[in-house]
Specification:
Chain lengths: 115, 113
């Protein structure tokens, strides 16, 4: 079973270019999340989707947009990439609901460099 | 404003000894705490968790301790093994909405043979 799949694994963009990071989960989870990991900063929440059809901003949403396409897929879009968006991006999913242990399942990450 | 803090960026421990990783938090609304382990080029994986109604939770070689009055938790690994070398993230959550996790900065643990 695949769990959470992220594509691409690596990407280099020029400043001002746009791209979409894809994420899909096959665990029938309700909630999905996008985090970025930067040295010394840990994992910071960009956007999340508590359930299909809903999205909300996290701690660092500026410069990003998201789409919860269906229950399985949650994409992250950079409309005009900036060097400050150079980071490793992780998608995660969570079953959610009463009694859930809050544990996330993470994808393997997308390493993005903006030059 | 870092709500979850891991003040030690790195820790080096001899194989077979105890590894202790620490985490502090500032938000008293947090009521569930987790530890994740991350190897290079992989996503974090869930390790162990603890609810605020407990002060200790064990799972094999891993034990998490919670001191609510001090807003402090720690992860003990006994005995430490070379495969434990990884980055460890502490995370916290409160009963709000989508159960968002707030992560610390991470501690890189190196187990020396």
């Amino acid at each position: 079973n695949a769990g959470v799949t992220q594509t691409p694994k690596f990407q280099v963009l020029k400043t001002g270019q746009s791209m979409t990071l894809q994420c899909a989960q096959d665990m029938n989870h309700n909630s999905m999340y996008w985090y970025r990991q930067d040295p010394g900063m840990g994992l910071r929440l960009i956007y999340y989707s508590a359930s299909e059809g809903t999205t909300d901003k996290g701690e660092v949403p500026n410069g990003y947009n998201v789409s919860r396409l269906n229950k399985r897929e949650f994409s992250l879009r950079l409309e005009s990439a900036a060097p400050s968006q150079t980071s490793v991006y992780f998608c995660a999913s969570q079953k959610g609901g009463t009694g859930d242990n809050y544990g996330y399942t993470f994808g393997s990450g997308t390493r993005l460099t903006v030059v | 404003d870092q709500q979850v803090k891991q003040n030690s960026p790195s820790l080096s421990v001899q194989e077979g000894r105890i590894s202790i990783l620490n985490c502090d938090y500032t938000n008293s609304m947090f009521d569930y705490f987790l530890w994740y382990k991350k190897y290079p080029a992989e996503g974090p994986t869930f390790l162990i968790s603890i609810s605020s109604i407990k002060d200790k939770n064990e799972d094999g070689r891993f034990t998490v301790f919670l001191n609510k009055s001090a807003k402090h938790l720690s992860l003990h690994i006994v005995p430490s093994q070379p495969g434990d070398s990884a980055v460890y993230f502490c995370a916290a959550s409160g009963l709000q909405g989508a159960q968002k996790l707030v992560f610390g900065q991470g501690t890189r643990l190196t187990i020396n043979p």
